[in-house]
């Protein structure tokens, strides 16, 4: 029997397993498919909320801690696995921001370098980005990570750790209970027992916990993205305009995202979204009109009220924990949110106040709602 059983092999589940294994715990991680292949693979990899000043202060606290953790994590995984998560810290250019004063006030309060710049500055940094006379904002410290490779590196590291058991292609059907206490899960590979269970099921979290009679307001929100194969160096930095972004990779791949769609668990792509994403991308970087779209895909974000994740023990179930509901910021918040949960699991001093994230009855849906 493991000390901990984690349901869900996205970056949240894998980083939770890594932190617990680093602390000497026996961990079993259960994933219904292949680790790192759902929302963790489908996102863009910006290591910040898109417009961080529009989120509640607790999210800013988590984001700030995670941003500082990613460079070290990327270097660690490269050394341990030989897989480079490609952390890049070249900054972000915000174009056409309609709440600049709010953004600048937030930056002053947080001690973040965010400044107003003009078209000349933007052209100096990114000569192929279209900007006329409007102002822009510049955050030089922002980084991005190549999330599919981050997932590959985390998976490879966990496979090499003797205290971690990775069970892929293993679907959870329900929970094992003994005398009203949860003692494990029933899966397609049989019953698995553990002292404590951690649910990191992303968009599928509500389905999992419904089998315990717990209702959690986490829902799937589809996001479609595309990627151009562009000349390496066409764009060097993340550029964000009107809620759409372009994210460069070192080999010239240029990601563009994303849509926000309430479509249940549907992950199909469509021509309307493709045209909309192309239009946004080519308004930002007109040279992309001459580049082919190499990929078009969709993923499911775990939407939650105000994007505030649920992190902690479920009410009345002291050995069942949740870390889910990060909405658009799962990758952004993963190092901090998993550290915060590990603090609670291991009775350590928490890195920040965990109370805003607890899955209290007030935050969970009522059983008859």
TrEMBL record:
Annotated pathway: Cofactor biosynthesis; thiamine diphosphate biosynthesis
GO annotation, cellular component aspect: cytoplasm
Residue ranges of every copy of the FAD dependent oxidoreductase domain listed in the record: 3-343
InterPro entries to which the protein is assigned, alphabetical: FAD-dep_OxRdtase (IPR006076), FAD/NAD-bd_sf (IPR036188), Gly_oxidase_ThiO (IPR012727)
Any GO molecular function: flavin adenine dinucleotide binding
Gene3D superfamilies in the record: D-Amino Acid Oxidase, subunit A, domain 2 (3.30.9.10), FAD/NAD(P)-binding domain (3.50.50.60)
Assigned keywords, A-Z: Oxidoreductase, Thiamine biosynthesis
GO BP: thiamine biosynthetic process; thiamine diphosphate biosynthetic process
Superkingdom as given in the UniProt entry: Bacteria
EC number: 1.4.3.19
Coiled coil stretches, renumbered: none
PANTHER family noted in UniProt: GLYCINE OXIDASE, SARCOSINE DEHYDROGENASE-RELATED
Protein name: Glycine oxidase ThiO
Organism, as annotated: Vreelandella nanhaiensis
Gene behind this protein: thiO
